[in-house]
Write a structure and sequence with these properties.
Helices cover 38% and strands 16% of the residues. It is globular, with a radius of gyration of 22 Å. Strand 10, helix 9 and strand 11 (239-244) form a beta-alpha-beta unit. It has 2 domains: 4-136, Rossmann fold (3-Layer(aba) Sandwich), CATH 3.40.50; 143-436, tm_1862 like domain (pyruvate-formate lyase- activating enzyme, Alpha-Beta Horseshoe). The chain is built from 18 helices and 14 strands. The chain is α/β, with parallel strands linked by helices. The protein binds iron/sulfur cluster. Iron/sulfur cluster (SF4) is lined by residues 171, 173-175, 178, 180-181, 217-218, 245, 269, 283.
Length: 446
C-alpha cells in the first residue's frame, strides 16, 4: 500500500520550436534516477512533457520539476499552478541551481547541484513539514551509489530508438560558455565500469534498444577509464553515441576501442574555426589546424561526427559564417549543428558579458536561451548580422543539395544513416528559420 505520491516532471514547452534535437523522444535520465531514490511506500509518476501532458487536476503529495533554461517559464507556470493548490513543489536542474532565488518565487525548495546527496534530508523535512528553501550538498555524490533509473516509469516510445545510460559526470575542463563545470564542480567522476556494464546487460535483457546514448558530458576525457569502459562494452555488441572532445581521435588505441565497442556517433564541440576564440573560451586544448584530420579519423573509422560550431565569439567577423559553412561542406561532417554563443546563467561567459555591458536584457524571456538567439552585443558585427549569419549557415547546410553534396563528397559506411538523420532534422530547422527570419532573401552578412 502506497502512502504517498510524488509527481516528477521533466518540463518541456512544446510551443517552442527546437531545431537541433533528435526527431524522437529522448529517454530522460534525470527524473527517472530521482524516482529510484524514493522509498517503497511512495507511488511515483514520471511525466516527460516531450511526449506527455501533466494532469493539472492531479493531487500528489509532492511535485518535483526539472527544466532547462529555455523551458523554465513554462516550468514556473506548472510550479505556480500546483503551489496554488497547496502542494509543495521542489525544483532542480542547471537553471534553478544558478538562479535559486528566482525559482523560489515559484516553488518551495530549490536543489542546487546534485540531488542524491541531499535527498534523504529533503524527504525527512517533507515528512516533518519543514522543507528548507535551499538544499545544497556539501560533497559530491559518489557515483558508486547511483541507483538504477526507473525507466519503467517512462512511455514505451521512449525506449523505441534509444536507451540512455550514464558512465561519468562532469568534465575536467572549464570552457567559458559551458554550464557543466559550474554545475558539477571541477570534478570528473566515474561510475565503476562493472556497474555500467551490469546495468546495460540488465537493460538489454529487458528488451530495451541496443542503441545506447551515454548522457555523459565528455565520455572519454579520462583515457584510462574510457579504455576500460570501451573494452568492457565490446562483448555486449551494442551501438552507442555520446559527447566527446577531439582528444579521443588523437589516441589511436582508444579510438580503435571505441570503434570495436560499437561507437556509432559522437557529438564533438569544435566551437570555432578561429584559434583565438578558443583561447578566450578556455578551450585552447582544441587546435583548429587539426580539425580536418580529426574529422577524417573519426569518419574513416565509421564514427559519425555531429559537430557543434558556435557563432558570435569575440574574434568572429562577418566572414565567419561562410568560412564555417565551407569547412563543414568540405570536410564532409555528417551532421553539422550551429549555435549562437549563449550566456547561460551560471557561466563565466555571462559574468564577463555583464561586466562588459554587452548582455542584452531579455526581461526574463528565458525561452530565448536555446542557442538560436543573439542575446549580447557581438564585438565585430551587429546583433542582426549575427542572427542573420546563423540562420543563413543553418539553412545552407540543411538544404537537400548541401546534405547530398556533403555526404557524397566523403561517403563512408554510415552514408544512408547520416542522410536519414539530416533529412529528419531538416523540417524543424526550416520551420524555425521561416518563423523567425521574415526578411528575404536570407544571405550571409558580408
Ligand atoms: S569540454 Fe565540453 S563539457 Fe567540458 S567544459 Fe568544455 S564545453 Fe563543457
Amino acid at each position: 500500500m502506497k502512502e504517498r505520491k510524488a509527481l516528477l516532471i521533466h518540463a518541456v514547452d512544446k510551443s517552442l520550436i527546437i531545431s537541433e534535437q533528435p526527431p524522437f523522444p529522448f529517454p530522460v535520465l534525470g527524473i527517472t534516477t530521482l524516482a529510484a531514490l524514493f522509498p517503497e511506500n511512495w507511488e511515483i509518476e514520471v511525466i516527460d512533457e516531450d511526449v506527455d501532458l501533466v494532469d493539472l487536476n492531479s493531487e500528489p503529495d509532492l511535485i518535483g520539476i526539472s527544466s532547462l533554461t529555455l523551458n523554465i517559464p513554462h516550468a514556473y507556470d506548472i510550479a505556480d499552478h500546483f503551489r496554488k493548490k497547496g502542494i509543495p513543489v521542489i525544483m532542480g536542474g542547471l537553471h534553478v541551481s544558478s538562479l535559486p532565488h528566482e525559482a523560489l518565487y515559484h516553488c518551495d525548495s530549490v536543489v542546487i547541484g546534485e540531488v542524491e546527496p541531499v535527498f534523504d534530508e529533503i524527504l525527512k523535512d517533507f515528512e516533518n513539514k519543514k522543507l528548507k528553501k535551499i538544499y545544497k550538498a556539501k560533497n559530491f555524490f559518489d557515483l558508486k551509489n547511483v541507483p538504477i533509473a526507473r525507466r519503467d516509469l517512462l512511455k514505451p516510445i521512449h525506449h523505441k530508438h534509444l536507451t540512455s545510460v550514464q558512465a561519468t559526470r562532469g568534465c575536467p575542463n572549464n570552457c567559458e560558455f559551458c554550464s557543466v563545470t559550474p554545475f558539477f564542480g571541477h570534478r570528473y567522476r566515474f561510475r565503476p565500469v562493472e556497474a555500467v556494464i551490469k546495468e546495460i546487460e540488465m537493460l538489454l535483457d529487458m528488451g530495451m534498444s541496443r542503441t545506447i546514448f551515454f548522457v555523459d558530458d565528455n565520455i572519454a576525457e579520462n583515457e584510462h577509464y574510457a579504455e576500460k569502459l570501451f573494452k568492457a562494452l565490446i562483448p555486449l555488441k551494442i551501438r552507442w553515441g555520446s559527447f566527446a572532445s577531439v582528444r579521443l581521435a588523437k589516441n589511436f588505441k582508444l579510438l580503435d576501442l571505441a570503434v570495436k565497442s560499437g561507437c556509432l556517433e559522437l557529438f564533438i564541440g569544435f566551437e570555432s574555426l578561429e584559434q583565438s576564440n578558443l583561447e578566450i573560451a578556455s578551450k585552447n586544448f582544441v587546435k583548429v589546424k587539426e580539425f580536418p584530420e580529426i574529422i577524417d579519423r573519426f569518419r574513416s573509422n565509421g564514427i559519425m561526427v555531429q559537430s557543434a560550431f558556435i557563432f558570435g565569439h569575440d574574434n568572429d567577423t562577418k566572414d565567419i559564417f561562410k568560412k564555417t559553412v565551407d569547412f563543414v561542406q568540405r570536410t564532409g561532417i555528417d551532421t553539422p549543428t550551429f549555435g549562437i554563443l549563449t550566456p547561460y546563467p551560471g557561466t563565466a561567459l555571462r559574468d564577463r558579458l555583464i561586466k562588459e555591458g554587452r548582455l542584452i536584457d531579455t526581461k526574463g524571456e528565458w525561452h530565448k536561451y536555446d542557442g538560436s538567439y543573439a542575446l549580447f552585443q557581438p564585438k565585430n558585427m551587429s546583433v542582426e548580422e549575427l542572427q542573420q549569419g546563423y540562420f543563413w549557415a543553418k539553412k545552407y547546410c540543411c538544404a537537400p543539395r548541401s546534405i547530398i553534396f556533403r555526404l557524397l563528397r566523403r561517403p563512408n559506411k554510415n552514408f544512408f544513416l547520416a542522410m536519414l538523420v539530416n533529412f529528419s532534422m531538416r523540417a524543424n530547422k526550416m520551420k524555425q528559420i521561416k518563423q523567425r527570419w521574415k526578411k528575404r532573401p536570407l544571405v550571409a552578412p558580408s
